Amino acid sequence: MKGERYVDLVVVLLAFLVVSIAFNLAVPPYEGFDEPNHIQYAEFVVDTGGPPVVPSDLNTEAAQPPAYYYLQALLLKISPTGPPPALVFRTLPDPPLETFHHPAIDSCLFCRGELTIHLMRFLSTLLAIGTVVAAFLIGWLLFPDWPEMAGAIAGTTALEPQFAYVNSIVNNDSLAFMTAAVVLLGCCGMAVSVKERSRIRFAGVTACALGLAFLAKEYAFTLLPLPLLAVGLASMSVRRRLLYVGSIASVSILICGIWLVRNGVLYGQPWPFRVELDYVRRLLPETVWNGPPPFSYFSEVFPKEFFQSFWYSGGWGQIRLPSALYWAIGGVTVVLTLGFACAIVRWRGTWPQRKAVPILLAAILLDIVGAIYSNISIHQPQGRYLLPAMPAVAVILVVGLVGLLPSRAARSVPLVVPVLLLGLTTYTLAFVVRHAYFG
After folding, report:
1. Quick one: pLDDT at residue 59?
2. pLDDT over threshold 80, residue 109
3. Are 177 and 164 in contact (CB under 8 A)?
4. What pLDDT digit, counting tens, does each position of 180-212 carry?
5. Is pLDDT of 20 > 90?
6. CB 33 within 8 A of CB 171
7. Is 176 helix (H, G, I), strand (E, B) or coil?
């Protein structure tokens, strides 16, 4: 039984590596969103040994936590292919969807400098393997007697087009997604475990992942309520709940505390939200609201852009799937969400791991609320803000399909969802990305 589950995981990881490497090679250097700034941050760490200080560096990512960039800096130091190539802005883009080019090595996939960027992108993919494994373990935890579910949940996570794309470029999202997935795993484990030893182990996983999350990206703030919810759902006394919460908080602070103290000394706050916003307003004034955003933005623009860019928004956000395909995806998503509700009602007395459901739903809702909150100041309706909760979304989609089918037929169909997503991602690569950059 265990061997079969691991075979499913290996198949999923191989498929993920194939599509992510395909995105890596198909997207020209610097054409991943914000990729130049992320590469520049890593080069800054190589040159100075530490992260930049806002506003001394002209980089919109300068306020980001440093963990991802230290990993990339280590790669740059040991890479035999040299530094990334020079960057030139295209005033007359050709092809039109390219924003940058590098004249010395145009159209040279494996020239030394360009190969460095592909290696940096592959490091993001390696980090994303941790997210996929965490999703697999969540499936195993929630459905211990249903081998197909773990592979289906991992495959749905890995083969969602935007997840595969974002994890194939140089961007600290990959580390943020991984830490968020591990926090979700730990919280689900604390809620459903009946043995104290297992619960302690999951609490340790949660604490370590949460501390690392604060060194990865500001997404970590949306994770804070999850351990509290998990401890509240677990069967234990009030005194023990307080002990768990205090222990998780202490370990997390121990891991990320030096970064928070550094920010407090430099900027007067543990997380430089105010400094970061002022900095972005100066560098990219067109992205920052000068007053309260209009209601029409959140009623019309934000929902559409957020949904579409969750499923796929390539390049710097300008490459999209056909509109009809987004409508079809939306329809299927609604149906599977209803199926998930049906499954929860059907299994309410027979699914011992049902305590994890509020945690999964909270992870999704918290990411959506976080995206809305950030868009009150900066208009960036990007669906990738929901990707830290991708394993939770995967559970809903896979369980949703099962919930629509008769009980006897249901056990054989969970893998349909990742197979369909593999088809969607393959279509995206073959007919959307290739056409956008190569005609």
Report:
1. 76
2. no
3. no
4. 999 999 999 999 998 999 999 999 999 999 999
5. yes
6. yes
7. helix
Q: How far is CA 149 from CA 188, 328, 350, 398, in A?
A: 16, 24, 17, 8
Q: Which two tokens mark 397?
A: 């989609």
Stretch (H or E) spanning 314: strand 313-314
Task: Return d(Cα 385, Cα 338) in angstroms, integer.
Answer: 23
CB 86 within 8 A of CB 104: yes
Task: Output b/e per residue, 339-378; b: 16+ Cβ within 10 A.
Answer: bbebbbeebeeebebbbbbebbbbbbebbbebbeebbebb
Q: Which two tokens stand for residue 269?
A: 């706050």
d(CA 306, CA 312): 10
The β-bridge partners of 217 are none
Look at the pTM and tell me if it is higher than 0.85. yes
pLDDT at 283 over 80: no
Q: Are 49 and 29 in contact (CB under 8 A)?
A: no
pLDDT top residue among 436 and 43:
43
| Per-residue model confidence (pLDDT) at position 95 | 47
Residue 16: predicted pLDDT: 98
Please count the helices (runs of H) and the strands (runs of E) in the chain.
Answer: 19, 4
pLDDT class of 56 with cuts at 50, 70, 90: low
Tell me 319's DSSP state. E
Closest to 248 measured CA to CA, from 285, 204, 214: 204
CA distances from 15 to 18, 51, 414, 426 (A): 5, 35, 17, 11
State mean pLDDT over 347-376.
91
What b/e readout covers 136-165, taking b as 16+ CB neighbours within 10 angstroms? bbbbbbbbeeebbbbbbbbbbbbbbbbbbb
Residues 6+ apart with CB under 8 A from 273: 218
CA distance 112 to 81: 5
pLDDT for 69 beyond 80: yes
